[in-house]
Amino acid sequence: MRLIASSVLLSLLWIPSVVTADSADGCLDLYFIDVEGGAATLIVTPVGESVLIDSGYPDNQGRDLDRIIHVAKDLASLKRIDHAVVSHWHLDHYGNHAALAAKFGIGTFWDRGIPEGLAEDPGYADRIASYRAASQNASKALHVGDTLPLKAGKTPLTVRVLTSGREVVTDEGEVNPFVDRHKAQPDDPSDNSASLSLLYAFGNFRFLTCGDLTWNTEAKLVTPRNPVGHVDLFMVTHHGLPVSNNPAMVLAIDPVVAIMCNGPKKGGAEQTMATLREVKSLKNWFQLHRNVDLDAAKQAPAEFIANTEQTADCKGEWILTKVAPDGSAYSVQIGPQGQQHKYQTRRP
């Protein structure tokens, strides 16, 4: 009992001393970088190892590339990206992998496997040729049940693949009480439904990110059993679009905090916001952007939205989640001057 009380006291007293990633502080840092409705999430482990999941759009005068490098170099003090993951083969998710490799450096490339063609992208052949060249045709395919080979410090750290290429983890976890909330949508033949889903575990802290996984595959993952369990942090799937974020999954994982990587006119759908409001344990959700076409009352409160401007005037503010060295507590903050919102990690 004394040990439990001491652990609780330490987690209550823990307050991150800095707002940027710093491997010397023993924390796990997760940066959600604004790429205007694409995705780019940078994770820095307590031993300084880095993982970038997706890389935003190319072009736009190097906007997304520059934002990623700024966070990696100037805020996280990285010399290169150790691991670069592609959740799926859409331009807003792997658009800068080749440029990052050339301009900043990437150690190992990870993906779900490279398809020969992609019906929904007529420019896929040229784009995938650049990716193959940057990875020297040595990218590694992740399959269901695989783990990323990350170094762990004092606190155990694992990253497990839950979905890949429409395959899902099965026959694990408790029976999902929200199975009846799944109402099947038309089959999705796009690469969205083949997205990688990764579950990070750092001590008791759990973080789930599913790329652009769509409705029916989400249900396939969590019905009849839920192998994810409950999570502390959920990256809202597919920018908050309603073809994803099946309530059968969102309610089953029961996040405490959610972060939505939407754009001013992409994602952040009213239906998804309504689903988040149903989550029993949810304390706050954060948005990278205000949805300029949706009433303010239907979105997160203003203090939980990183960027409120249209794209032309956007400063590209990021969101940082900082997890305590023992995984017992975490904070979420918008930009370098934002308030630190503090949370206790839920117990197993």
How would you describe this protein?
The chain has helices at residues 2-13, 63-75, 91-94, 97-103, 124-134, 215-222, 247-253, 270-278; strands at 28-32, 41-44, 50-53, 81-85, 106-111, 140-141, 157-164, 167-168, 174-175, 197-202, 205-209, 225-226, 233-236, 257-260, 284-289, 305-307, 319-323, 329-334, 341-344. The protein is α/β, with parallel strands linked by helices. It has a nine-stranded mixed β-sheet, covered by helices on one side. The chain starts with a helix and ends with a strand.
- Biggest β-sheet: count, sense, barrel? 9 strands, mixed
State which percent range the strand residues make up. Answer: 15-25%
Tell me, what is the CATH class? Alpha Beta
Tell me what the CATH architecture is. Answer: 4-Layer Sandwich
Number of domains: 1
Q: How many whole angstroms does the radius of gyration measure?
A: 19 Å
The amount of helix comes to 10-25%
Poorly predicted regions? 1-13, 17-21
In CATH, the homologous superfamily goes by the name Ribonuclease Z/Hydroxyacylglutathione hydrolase-like
Q: What is the H/E order?
A: HEEEHEHHEHEEEEEEHEEHEHEEEEE
> How far apart are the termini?
17 Å
Strands in their spatial order, largest beta sheet: 6-5-4-3-2-1-17-18-19
Alpha-beta classification = alpha/beta
Could you give the count of β-strands? Answer: 19
Helix count equals 8
**Anisotropy-based shape:** globular
Mean pLDDT level: 93
At the fold tier of CATH, the topology name is Metallo-beta-lactamase, Chain A
Write the layout of secondary structure elements.
Elements: H1 2-13, E1 28-32, E2 41-44, E3 50-53, H2 63-75, E4 81-85, H3 91-94, H4 97-103, E5 106-111, H5 124-134, E6 140-141, E7 157-164, E8 167-168, E9 174-175, E10 197-202, E11 205-209, H6 215-222, E12 225-226, E13 233-236, H7 247-253, E14 257-260, H8 270-278, E15 284-289, E16 305-307, E17 319-323, E18 329-334, E19 341-344
Parallel strand pairs: 3-4, 4-5, 5-6, 11-13, 13-14, 14-15, 15-16
Antiparallel strand pairs: 1-2, 1-17, 2-3, 7-8, 7-10, 9-12, 10-11, 17-18, 18-19
Helix pairs in contact: 4-5
